[in-house]
Amino acid sequence: MRVRIAGTGSYLPATCVSNAELSQRVDTSDEWIQSRTGIRERRLLGPDDVPSQMGVSAAQAALAAAGSSPAEVGLLMVASNVLEQPVPGTAPFIAQGLGFPDDVPFMDIMAGCSGFVFGMAVAGALVAGGLVRSALLVGTEALSRFVDWQDRTTCVLFGDGAGAVLLEHSTGEESILGVSLHGDPAKAHLLRVEVGGVRTPVDEIAVRARRHFLKMEGEGVFRSAVHMMERSSREALAQAGLSADDVDWWIPHQANLRIIDALARRLQIPRERMVINIDRVANTSTASIPIALDELARSGRLQSGDILALTAFGAGASYGTVIVRW
Ligand code: UT7
């Protein structure tokens, strides 16, 4: 059974912070951030806003684009690195915000920045297997609440936002064509928030040492990222019976423009086939691929039958690629 993307949506918070503005808060510069990452500005969640609000807006846009409604959704799956609150997660709040009836299943999925790609594979399989009639997949992220605004090596990299897709049975050629998912647990230390869980609960000493904020070994992540996306892309393409050349639009996780360029060089992808919005939105983690996909879909450049490659890596380390015929 085939599964198609029936609609896409995204949401970006109104507050836009440029590199120049950031350089008044931490010891950095527009020149450093742009040349090392490709980021010019990012959107940040307002002080009273929460990830579920962004997710609801993105989901509503995806449902409207698909001509569907909350009452028709068979499953809600939410990919995120940040929970709205520890229990019961973010999905129920998005279900509430969408006005779901009392019998639709929802769940959160945590697979680092690859969460959306993993969600596409899992939700897609549930739809393809006939276990649910459709799946609303949302990536919503507010990493601005978890970065250390005194740590210039991380705080300049991330932005907030949400993206969503509705997956439905397909009766035509549009479908998920290939999937490759992987994990490398030896790299779990590269990207982490150490404090706040069972192993190390929050206490005054931990907070004073700023260990409740996101920590990253940037160079290690960078080196692994290119290899991971290349490997899973080649595998997912092979499963689909396609080559890199057949892909009309590459939508890579937007973590660093230099990572995207390195992937393009390895797979010999022309720049014009790479969907890039990191300059405007920075790294929105699980939301980065659905936001970029939604912007592409709404730009009118996407044609029926186009082949898309969605490829990501992230904390865990998790990585994966999904190939889709639009
Ligand atoms: O979703 C997945 C999440 N993360 C990623 O994908 C991140 C992957 N890694 C990266 O994107 C890059 O490694 C970074 C952008 C994080 C860092 O770029 P880099 O070219 O690897 O820089 P670096 O860490 O080697 O730092 C070079 C210098 C250092 O100074 P010294 O030691 O040479 O004096 C840093 O202290 O740049 C300094 N630096 C900064 N300077 C100004 C680091 N951050 C900044 C900053 N502004 N924001």
Question: How would you describe the overall organization of this protein?
Answer:
The chain is α/β, with parallel strands linked by helices and 326 residues long. The chain has two domains: 3-173, Thiolase/Chalcone synthase (Peroxisomal Thiolase, Chain A, domain 1), CATH 3.40.47; 176-325, Peroxisomal Thiolase, Chain A, domain 1. The chain contains eleven helices and 13 strands. It has helices at residues 19-22, 30-37, 51-66, 91-98, 115-128, 152-155, 204-208, 218-240, 257-267, 278-281, 288-299; strands spanning 2-11, 15-18, 41-44, 76-79, 106-109, 134-141, 161-170, 175-183, 191-192, 215-216, 249-252, 307-314, 318-325. The protein has a five-stranded mixed β-sheet with strand order 1-7-6-4-5, sandwiched between helices. The chain has a four-stranded mixed β-sheet with strand order 8-13-12-11, with helices on both faces. Strand 12 (307-314) and strand 13 form a beta hairpin. Helix 8 packs parallel to helix 9 (257-267). The site of oxa(dethia)-CoA (UT7) has 21 residues, from helix 2, helix 6 and helix 8.
Q: What's the Cα radius of gyration?
A: 19 Å
The helix count comes to 11
- Return residue spans where pLDDT drops below 50 for at least 5 consecutive residues: none
For the record, give the distance between the C-alpha atoms at the N and C termini, rounded to a whole number: 16 Å
